[in-house]
Amino acid sequence: MAIRPWNWKGFLELFIILYFAYLLAAAAQYNDYPSALQFASWTTYDVSAFKTTQNSRVNMRIILLKVTNPSSKIGFAFGFVSNGSIASNFLGAASVRLKSSYYVGGQSYWSDVEVFWLANRNKPVHENATLQLQKNGDLVLRDVDGTLAWSTNTSNMSVAGLQMLQTGNLVLYGDNNQTLWQSFDHPMDTLLPGQKLLAGQKLVSRASATNWSEGSFYLSVSSQGLFAFYRSTVPQMYFKFSVSGIKDSEQPSYIRAVDDGTLALYILSAEPSEPDAVLSRPVNYTEYAYMRLDSDGHLLFYYDSFADSMYRVDVLADLLRECDYPTVCGNYGLCSYGQCSCPYGFDQNNVSDKQSNFGCTEINPVTCENGQSQSLIPLKDVYYFNYVDPDVADLKGIHMESCRDACLRNCSCKVAMFRFYYNTSHGNCFLLSNVLSLTTEEQGRRQYNSYAFIKLPKEQESQILSSVSAPPTRAIAGVTVGTFLLVILVVAFCILCLRKKRNTDGDVEDYFDQLSGMPTRFSYQDLKLATEDFQRKLGAGGFGSVFEGTMVSGEKVAAKRLDALGQGKKEFLAEVKTIGSIHHVNLVRLVGFCAENLRRLLVYEFMCNGSLDKWIFNRIPQQPALDWQTRKTIILDIAKGLAYLHEECRQRIVHLDIKPQNILLDENLRAKISDFGLSKLIDKDQSQVVTTMRGTPGYLAPELSSSIVTEKADVYSFGIVVMEVVCGRKNLDRSQSEG
């Protein structure tokens, strides 16, 4: 019998057909099904029949799925989720990713599941609970015994169906596809790109990474700014980002997580206008996933690193240090540069390897019954996170001893915190009954001082004082020798520091002493009294905040307090030297300045009508519009001021930051140029100088990109300002059409 030859061509065709059939079958496993119509019903048991997801931490059974990136197999899912316990089920939404290695037995397993919203966060249901989109339009979750666990409360609203959108927003939509209810209006602890947190809403952290119920922190928005609190009977603020000014939008204030990985604050304004402020951190990842308030109070951006874990960036890292968080060291814990310890009279809690929580417990707890035998142990230079909100002080403007006595008389007071500026006869008193973390790393960061007084039994006070003041006898000899060596080292160190101080820190003092014709130099205490402890804030700029004040002579002034991390010594010297030596009717007069250690302030004449931008961009309804004659006068005033700077001074002065925000108006709406922090001096025999690129985007002359500076840079900026004054709109205004 003849052997038939092998049909290689037929075999290859069959192999190709089977291979592509396999690919199509695999691809079908993650095709999305984002919608459901009325009268649909699901139970936790039934859902697992048509789609299951799992990873090491989270199990999810999907009801709706929207694949947002088919190539990366990434999507948003809605369904029943659990966190290791089948007895505790939640209805929620999550971002999911399918990994090919999890394609098992014809079923796709979504290996990465990140829950960002839960309907029944604080009320989990058991197995066989039921979700139903009812005929009346209400989406209802009932436990296995029929108990109502959660509802959208959308009865009689003509709901047509339920849908998971491309953005991760779960919506109930009507017959005309209008949104009747959406999960974005009920945030948990996470904001997705494009999602808003409105005034009146909260982001509430999780209790822990494995416990999704409400935790200890929340983030909220108001017409004054963005705030973060520790949740307690009386919420305690630990972060604030204030935005001052006149609200020019009827919409409620809000923040929005932008898809470029920034947090935009719309406190006074609203889209499509520019945000009032933007919080961001530089990263190398472009795949922004979400922003979450974590269980430790940190506000984090999560970026997809396309690996097994997310890349995290702390949004507030430039504004809060590790020790500024309320629970960083647990109850009574002392935080110093990220390290935790316990004060005298306290022991560290027993902490296992699986726990990260620190904390301190009283060796001998105080009770109300032994009130007569209690004392307060003072701790100098110890601060409390709640100082960020001075309005919550229990007693204001009192003596330190009165603060101590108030705590001793108050049974619930465990610690008295006393915050003051220069002497202990006048300060604010905080009586703490729930004591969280304390910090000792504030030296040099704040402009005030602080004491903590910890309540302990009297017999323990003597033990603490003796342990501190009476070293063991055997150690006396060693201490004596060590002290002698230490004295030698200290003397040598002081000599080196004095030499360095003469050459560095003393430069500023020497510089001001050598200048002639300088404005008045004020002490910090003078300006603190003039501004009533910096209470009347006029606004904030790139380098600091401006406060209204009245000098002892009765002259009204505007004190610009420079931030320690903003305008540096170089810019401060430039502004004092420049504006302190010139005088012109169209330049804001520098009344004086303050330079004490890190405290730097500039004192200007008070301009009652504020900056020009508030008159041409953000005009309030009751404020009259500028007529054409006034606009012409303002433009001429700016031109005269620039002409003086460029042509009539001993050295030509290039301002480099001409914009409406730096043009101030007096009581007669006459314009004056202000803010010389970026200015540059050019000798008469020079045509140009070289400097780093500086200024405000939108007002920068093109030639500044080459770092070549001439007075023409100001002329270019002036031209932009003229157009804005005439047109009444910003040079970059997204609220206007391009036509």
From TrEMBL:
ATP binds at residue 560. InterPro entries: Bulb-type_lectin_dom, Bulb-type_lectin_dom_sf, G-type_lectin_kinases/EP1-like, Kinase-like_dom_sf, Pan_app, Prot_kinase_dom, Protein_kinase_ATP_BS, Ser/Thr_kinase_AS. It is an enzyme of class 2 (transferase). Its EC number is 2.7.11.1. Keywords: ATP-binding, Disulfide bond, EGF-like domain, Glycoprotein, Kinase, Membrane, Nucleotide-binding, Receptor, Serine/threonine-protein kinase, Signal, Transferase, Transmembrane, Transmembrane helix. One of its GO terms (molecular function) is protein serine/threonine kinase activity. Residues 65-185 form the Bulb-type lectin domain. It catalyses: L-threonyl-[protein] + ATP = O-phospho-L-threonyl-[protein] + ADP + H(+); L-seryl-[protein] + ATP = O-phospho-L-seryl-[protein] + ADP + H(+). It is found in: Membrane. GO terms for cellular component: membrane. Its main location: membrane. PROSITE patterns: BULB_LECTIN (PS50927), PAN (PS50948), PROTEIN_KINASE_ATP (PS00107), PROTEIN_KINASE_DOM (PS50011), PROTEIN_KINASE_ST (PS00108). The chain crosses the membrane at residues 12-30, 475-498. Residues 532-739 form the Protein kinase domain. Residues 368-452 form the Apple domain. Belongs to the protein kinase superfamily. Ser/Thr protein kinase family. This is Receptor-like serine/threonine-protein kinase. It comes from Dipteronia dyeriana. The lineage of its organism: Eukaryota, Viridiplantae, Streptophyta, Embryophyta, Tracheophyta.
